[in-house]
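Hypothesis: this fold can be encoded by more than one sequence.
Test: take the structure tokens below, design a sequence, compare later.
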């Protein structure tokens, strides 16, 4: 079996902790990071490299949530222009990351291609290239003939494609845990199975984090808690209009060469890995599990939901019951730590339709076998841009969350910026559109692409 095979380590399998057993909490550190996804682990690494004492707390296991469940694309292509500079910075880090961390992350510079099925799609990609040419300049349009030459296995006609040769891919869980282990070697302490209850504050600044196993004093707190971030920020008077959507992903058995570049088109996304297996998923199609919490911040999301209604499926089932149970038995102050390793069912019908679509697009007939399907909860914000900010309202707090399904590729650059903010450096200009206050000020714009 290939060293890069997901078969032995996929979401919902038993996840090994970085350090078996629960480590003792430190009494005080320079910085506490809440969240063990790639953003939290990269932040812990760069904070420790900057000479700070660091504790990272994760309610489950490192990479157990979306950072271990995503597609593994590392792209600058077709990013929101406001997010593009951060993606370009991240790409420069990925190319040397295995050397920097001293571990494999599965990085390969394979490129990224978005195929246009219609003239309208082709025109949209051409407009994006023109708009971002001064920032990136790496993306280019392909003709129908060039698209076919790039992907001989493509059996459906294409009007053209958007192609960025310098983009690439990596293995999500491998990269996230590599950052975690590098952070530990740099001196950080990572405590798994330790949920954060609250960020504590006094005199206009943070003073520490209260966890289910005790308190850690600190004057710097990084909120990288993914879908739980709004629960930690609300008691601080910081509103975050955050919701979640459920995305289903599948792993195939090894296939003949289909697409060397990471691929999007005809309603599917595909990443062919080094061993020939493929990560496949429906593109811009998600499930919304209705809960009592779904009403929160609805006004922020309703316009985009109505605009792209066909891309969402509303579901009423176990998540509603789980939410109701939590509200009845879990105190509000402890809900940010509740729901450890939640049951996230894959949408089997969607997985089957995606498999059939891949067979149709690439003419694989009956050779395509699904090894496993899983789902992840993607935390989304109304404009599909993250928050990466040190809010003026609370000294020492750094918020890095809401990556809306785009966070894996951005993770290394986000970690570097978090460390700079923690050291008191002036925020880089590229972070201005990512400030938290855009939602209270009403200065956020429509999402660049469907959520």
């Amino acid at each position: 079996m290939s060293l890069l095979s997901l078969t032995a380590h996929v979401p919902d399998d038993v996840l090994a902790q970085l350090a078996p057993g629960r480590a003792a909490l430190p009494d005080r550190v320079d910085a506490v990071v809440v969240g063990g996804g790639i953003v939290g682990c990269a932040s812990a690494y760069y904070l420790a490299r900057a000479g700070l004492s660091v504790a990272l707390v994760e309610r489950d296991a490192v990479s157990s949530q979306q950072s271990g469940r995503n597609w593994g694309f590392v792209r600058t292509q077709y990013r929101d222009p406001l997010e593009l500079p951060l993606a370009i910075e991240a790409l420069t880090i990925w190319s040397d990351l295995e050397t920097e961390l001293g571990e494999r992350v599965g990085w390969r510079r394979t490129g990224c291609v978005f195929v246009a099925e219609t003239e309208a799609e082709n025109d949209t990609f051409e407009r994006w290239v023109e708009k971002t040419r001064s920032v990136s300049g790496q993306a280019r349009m392909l003709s129908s003939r060039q698209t076919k030459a790039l992907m001989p296995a493509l059996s459906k006609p294409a009007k053209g494609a958007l192609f960025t040769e310098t983009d690439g891919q990596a293995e999500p869980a491998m990269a996230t845990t590599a950052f975690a282990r590098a952070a530990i070697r740099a001196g950080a302490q990572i405590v798994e199975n330790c949920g954060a209850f609250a960020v504590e504050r006094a005199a206009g600044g943070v003073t520490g984090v209260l966890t289910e196993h005790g308190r850690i004093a600190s004057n710097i707190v990084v909120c990288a808690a993914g879908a739980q971030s709004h629960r930690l920020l609300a008691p601080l008077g910081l509103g975050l209009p955050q919701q979640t959507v459920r995305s289903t992903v599948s792993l195939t058995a090894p296939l003949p060469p289909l697409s060397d570049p990471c691929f999007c088109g005809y309603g599917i996304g595909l990443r062919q890995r080094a061993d020939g297996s493929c990560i496949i998923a429906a593109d811009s199609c998600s499930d919304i599990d209705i809960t009592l919490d779904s009403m929160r911040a609805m006004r922020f999301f309703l316009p985009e939901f109505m605009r792209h209604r066909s891309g969402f499926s509303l579901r009423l089932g176990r998540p509603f019951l789980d939410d109701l149970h939590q509200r009845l038995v879990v105190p509000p102050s402890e809900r940010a730590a509740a729901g450890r390793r939640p049951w996230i069912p894959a949408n089997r019908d969607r997985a089957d339709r995606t498999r059939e679509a891949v067979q149709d697009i690439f003419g694989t007939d009956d050779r395509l076998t699904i090894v496993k399907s899983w789902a992840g909860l993607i935390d989304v914000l109304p404009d599909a841009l993250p928050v990466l900010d040190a809010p003026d309202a609370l000294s020492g707090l750094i918020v890095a969350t809401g990556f809306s399904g785009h966070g894996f590729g951005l993770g290394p650059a986000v970690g570097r910026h978090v460390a700079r903010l923690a050291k008191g450096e002036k925020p880089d200009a590229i972070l201005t559109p990512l400030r938290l206050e855009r939602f209270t000020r009403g200065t956020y714009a429509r999402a660049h692409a469907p959520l």
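Residues 407-422 form the longest helix (16 residues). The longest strand covers residues 370-380.
Hypothesis status: open.
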